[in-house]
């Protein structure tokens, strides 16, 4: 038996709002997905991300309840082309009504970094490498 990780699943409270959020981050979500109870997107390399409404999950797990206690327990990260794109994407998401968690900053590990919350409170990181400082000899 060969086991292969091939899907990330998110349970969403509002499919339309979640689809809009992830489209802003470049996911090629199919047209009409806003009204579907289950949506899958194949990412480069074959990994898939799936979105299921709470009602879909309850259809086979009637005792399912959403996590409580603040932010979600899943973290996703999206690479941006450069630090300016991190800042612009963060601003665009806030302008669209989504919540910021950590505004853009220059992280000590050499990346421009920011964190937003998706419509269900899951943290979504935006990052890009910082320019390498030129050294003089």
Outline the fold blueprint:
Elements: E1 7-12, H1 15-24, E2 38-42, E3 48-53, H2 54-60, E4 75-79, H3 83-95, E5 99-106, E6 111-117, E7 123-129
Parallel strand pairs: 1-3, 4-7
Antiparallel strand pairs: 2-3, 5-6, 6-7
Verbal overview:
The protein is α/β, with parallel strands linked by helices and 137 residues long. It has two domains: 1-62, 2,3-Dihydroxybiphenyl 1,2-Dioxygenase, domain 1, CATH 3.10.180.10; 74-137, 2,3-Dihydroxybiphenyl 1,2-Dioxygenase, domain 1, CATH 3.10.180.10. The protein has three helices and seven strands, in the order βαββαβαβββ. Strand 2 (38-42) and strand 3 form a beta hairpin. The model has no long low-confidence stretch (mean pLDDT 91).
